[in-house]
Structure formats: structure tokens, C-alpha cells
Write a structure and sequence with these properties.
The protein is 39% helix and 12% strand. The chain is α+β, with helices and mostly antiparallel strands and 488 residues long. The chain folds into two domains: 5-354, Glycosyltransferase; 362-484, Trefoil (Acidic Fibroblast Growth Factor, subunit A) (Trefoil). The protein has a five-stranded antiparallel beta sheet, with no helix packed on it. The longest helix is centred in the first third of the chain and has 18 residues, at 64-81. Residues 361-486 form the Ricin B lectin domain.
């Protein structure tokens, strides 16, 4: 395993010695702006990043944990824009490394990969990806103990308890609870993690997260790296969804407000190492922060961070790009270009495209583009096989749909393409939620697309007759394929 040169240079000592000095993704059913054309900066950035993909290794770039982060960048790009041309990177990484379960000596490395598989599951519905994320969470949990009152160790060597592996464990376990039916284990672990983390002292009086703990279990005062601020935002967003505790969002916003203010120079996010050289690891950090900030903004249903996020993207495109990719300094000048710095800057571009998204769990009517008609669960049925139909909008229980991840649920069932069909005219019904690709829907341009078939939810012949069963059909932009999802 290649050392994390930058991060490990700044985390110089370990517990047991005198410590003197020092990673999807929410996938939501959202209406996306039409800014993901082939010529757009965000699409150009994705193409530049994928030049670093090695089909022999299945990795984007050469660093192990950085390639997991870069894969999450591409997954977030796909979730945001609907552009699936790089989906091969997901299966490529999985097939090349699944025998190892994506585990190594470092808990943060394993956590990054676990989160990438959560996103892969959200995109594809493939249960193998969800199971891998569970395997990774279970592995990390094996390095939780009572030293310093709790928390997971940074590595198998058990020499340092620090922020990043614990933040990743929080996000991963909360995300798993939100996706694993009937789970209690991951939720308990997530609650234990947050209870320990918030009491550990790593969040300082300025509401920023320092790197870790000393041998005496005190805040070590080391660098407030941007990624340590970003992962906790995503973790608290997932945990808030899991528990309904909005106070977690309030805490996350305190950290977000402190980070956007204190870690910016002239309004642009700046890592402390930029003037001297960040190396391969810290080059990834800022993108992780903006990704977490966008997830928080989505969960909080706020546009408060949009101006700041837009400023990051504007600075990247104006000062930190060339024909090959992006550098480490978003304010410029262009320097230290790598796959890691390109992924990081691409995260900034994607976060700006995303806008104010619909958080998972939003409930309400799904209105058709045909005036007065809504998506309807036949007789508010909770029996698998009930037809998905159009009906006059009435606000009743048969028209209360919950957008959760990339599924639409009503009365305990999921909107489902019958028999996982992909042909034009395949009927749409409600079925037991199972995570299948035929229950995945992506909202873009006003349409609801089923990625597995590449076809859109369609009202046959633009019918207006109550009870008309819906189908999938080639996407054509017609009013009979326009739908407004809850919260959008």
C-alpha cells in the first residue's frame, strides 16, 4: 500500500509517543438544470478525469484511496447530470478488486471505498455493491475500541485516533441504515460514532475539525483540513435522515459556515499546503468538502451555499484549468495538476451544477405534464402488482409518493417496471421494494428516466382517462413524459 505522503507527513506522531504535531453522493430524484451538454465545463472536467482511468487496474489515477474518491466524483457527476457514459468505471473497479473487499491497513481507505459502493448501489440497484459497502463497514467497526472512550483507529497499527476514519464511519453506517431494510445495527453504530465524536474534542471552539487526538486523548491542534469539514457534513446529513433529528443539520451548518468563511481566501476555498505543495493526498481534499457541503444543502433544503459553491466553480474555470485537467489551486495559478486535483475541481463544478436538490424522503404528489393529472397508486393498494396509473389530482393517499434515493414509494411499495422489462410499452406497476434496477428512477429535464432501460415514464398516447396504466417508452420530451416530483 502506497503511503499517503502529504497526510502522513503532517501526522507525524502516534498515540503511545509524544504527539507534538500532525473521503454519493446523495442520490435524489431531482430536477436538474440543462447545463450538462458535451461542451459544458462539468462534462469537460469529467472527460479530463477519465483520461486517468486504467482498465488494467480498474482505478482512476494511481493512488488507492484517491481512486475511490475519484470514482465517487464520477458517480456524483452521473447522478447529477444523467450522463452514464463512464459507468464502466464502477464495474471495472469492482471486478478488479472485489476479492480484497477493498480492505487494507487503513480504515479511512476502506471507508472511502465503502461509500463509493453505496453510491454504486444507488445508481444501479445492484445488491452486490450494497453488500460490499456492508462488508467494508463491518471491517472498520472491527477497529473500534474503548481507547479515548471509543472511536475507530486510523490503521491496523492502532497508533492514532483521528477525525477522518471516524467521520467516514459515521457517514457509511448512517447511509447503510438508510438503505438496508429493517436495519438496527448500522444505526446503532452511527449513533455511537456521533456521540463519541462530538464529545472527543476534535471539533474546536471555532466549529472546525482538527486532525485528531493526542496520546492523552485531547485535540492535537493540527491542521483543519478541508476534507475533515466535508465528510462530517455528509455524515450528519445521513444521520439526520436516519433519525429525523434536525438538530444534526444545525450542527452541520455551524461547521459548514465556519469552513466556508475561515478556509477561504478572497472567497475561494484554499488548502494550507497550496503555496508549498500539497502532494497526491491533499490535492483531493477540497473536492470532498464541496461534495459534503452540497449534500448538506440538499438535506437542509437550503440555497444558502449556492453563491459560495458557484464562486468555486467560476474560479476553477477561470484560473485553474488547461486542456488536460485542473490544478490544486482553484484561485490559480495552474499548478500540481494530477488525477486527484482534477477530481477535486470536478467536484466543485458538479456541486455548482446541482443547485438546490430534493432531499431523500420528500413526500407529495407527482404531477403529470398533462394538466390536472397525477401519478396514482390504484385504490391506494399495498398489494404488489397494483397498477401505476394517472388520475385526477386529489391529494389523497393513493397520490402520496416519497422520493427516496432513486426510488418512488407509495403505500409501502415501489414504482416498478414490470418484470424488469426494457422494451417500449412495458407496463409500470407497484411492487415490493427490492433495490432492483427496474425500481430506479432519475429526474432530469422534467422526465423520469429508468436508467436500466434508458426509457421514460410515459402516459400512453397522452391519455387523459382516469385509470390509464403507465408504461416506459423512448424519451421524447412530450408532456405525457413530464413529471414533477415531491419537493422539486
Amino acid at each position: 500500500m502506497r503511503h499517503h505522503t502529504t497526510k502522513r507527513r503532517r501526522i507525524a506522531k502516534i498515540i503511545g509517543a509524544a504527539v507534538t504535531g500532525a473521503a454519493l453522493g446523495v442520490s435524489a430524484l431531482v430536477a436538474l438544470p440543462a447545463t450538462s451538454s458535451a461542451a459544458s465545463p462539468v462534462a469537460t472536467g469529467a472527460a479530463a478525469l477519465m483520461k486517468s482511468y486504467d482498465s488494467g487496474t480498474g482505478q482512476i489515477g494511481t493512488g488507492w484511496w484517491n481512486s475511490a474518491v475519484a470514482l465517487s466524483t464520477i458517480e456524483t457527476y452521473q447522478q447529477t447530470t444523467g450522463d452514464s457514459q463512464y459507468a464502466y468505471a464502477v464495474s471495472g473497479a469492482f471486478d478488479k478488486h472485489k476479492a480484497s473487499n477493498f480492505e487494507n491497513d487503513y480504515m479511512d481507505d476502506t471507508g472511502w471505498w465503502g461509500l463509493a459502493w453505496v453510491q454504486a448501489y444507488d445508481i444501479t440497484g445492484n445488491p452486490a455493491y450494497l453488500q460490499m459497502a456492508r462488508t467494508d463497514a463491518n471491517y472498520v467497526h472491527g477497529y473500534w475500541d474503548d481507547t479515548c472512550g471509543g472511536g475507530v483507529w486510523w490503521s491496523k497499527a492502532k497508533g492514532y485516533k483521528n477525525a477522518i476514519p471516524n467521520e467516514l464511519f459515521l457517514q457509511l453506517t448512517a447511509a447503510l441504515h438508510n438503505r438496508v431494510a429493517g436495519d438496527t445495527t448500522y444505526l446503532n453504530w452511527a449513533r455511537q460514532e456521533w456521540s463519541w465524536f462530538k464529545g472527543s474534542g476534535m471539533i474546536n471552539s471555532s466549529h472546525l475539525v482538527n486532525d485528531g487526538l493526542t496520546s492523552s486523548c485531547k485535540n492535537n491542534g493540527q491542521q483543519t483540513w478541508s476534507y475533515n469539514q466535508g465528510v462530517v457534513l455528509a455524515g450528519l446529513s445521513e444521520l439526520s435522515q436516519a433519525t429525523g433529528d434536525t438538530g444534526l443539520i444545525t450542527t452541520a451548518r455551524q461547521i459548514a459556515d465556519a469552513a466556508t468563511s475561515k478556509l477561504s481566501r478572497n472567497g475561494v476555498l484554499t488548502e494550507s499546503c497550496e503555496s508549498s505543495g500539497c502532494g497526491a493526498d491533499a490535492a483531493s481534499f477540497k473536492g470532498i468538502f464541496v461534495r459534503g457541503l452540497r449534500q448538506l444543502a440538499t438535506a437542509a433544503r437550503t440555497t444558502a451555499y449556492d453563491t459560495w459553491l458557484n464562486a468555486q466553480a467560476a474560479s476553477v474555470t477561470a484560473h485553474d484549468t488547461n486542456s488536460g485537467g485542473f490544478g490544486v489551486s482553484w484561485a490559480g495559478p495552474m499548478r500540481e495538476e494530477s488525477s486527484s486535483s482534477t477530481a477535486s475541481a470536478e467536484d466543485a463544478l458538479v456541486a455548482a451544477v446541482r443547485g438546490s436538490a430534493t432531499p431523500p424522503g420528500s413526500t407529495g404528489a407527482v404531477a403529470s405534464g398533462i394538466s390536472g393529472k397525477c401519478l396514482d397508486d390504484y385504490k391506494a393498494s399495498s398489494t404488489p402488482g397494483a397498477k401505476a396509473q394517472i388520475w385526477d389530482c386529489n391529494g389523497g393517499p393513493s397520490q402520496q409518493w416519497t422520493a427516496d434515493g432513486q426510488t418512488l414509494r407509495a403505500n409501502g411499495l415501489c414504482l416498478d417496471v414490470t418484470g424488469a422489462g426494457t422494451a417500449n410499452g412495458t407496463l409500470v406497476e407497484l411492487w415490493t421494494c427490492n433495490g432492483g434496477a427496474n425500481q430506479q428512477w432519475r429526474a432530469a429535464g422534467g422526465a423520469l428516466t429508468n436508467p436500466a432501460s434508458g426509457r421514460c415514464l410515459d402516459d400512453p398516447h397522452s391519455g387523459t382517462t382516469n385509470g390509464t396504466q403507465l408504461q416506459i417508452w423512448d424519451c421524447n420530451g412530450g408532456a405525457n413524459q413530464k413529471w414533477t416530483v415531491p419537493g422539486s
